[in-house]
Specification:
Helix content is 0%, strand content 36%. By secondary structure, the protein is mostly beta strands. β1 (15-18) and β2 form a beta hairpin.
Length: 66
């Protein structure tokens, strides 16, 4: 991961854990992105660019009601 300004959001909902990966947003000096972090290796990959603001206080998966 690049240097980032930290994480202002902690606790339930600020990260999504799924299939051995953690999805969490971080803000650098130039942009906000969601990162995919492999739990086993600690390797982080830059993902979705956050537009319309820089903070993403919660990440969740929505499911369609059957």
């Amino acid at each position: 991961m690049p240097d980032h300004a930290g994480d202002n959001y902690f606790g339930f909902g600020s990260a999504l854990i799924e299939s051995g990966k953690i999805y969490k947003s971080f803000v650098t000096n130039t942009e906000g992105r969601v990162y995919q972090i492999d739990i086993a290796t600690g390797v982080a990959k830059a993902g979705a660019l956050i537009t319309g603001g820089v903070d993403l206080p919660a990440i969740t998966r929505l499911t369609k009601k059957k």
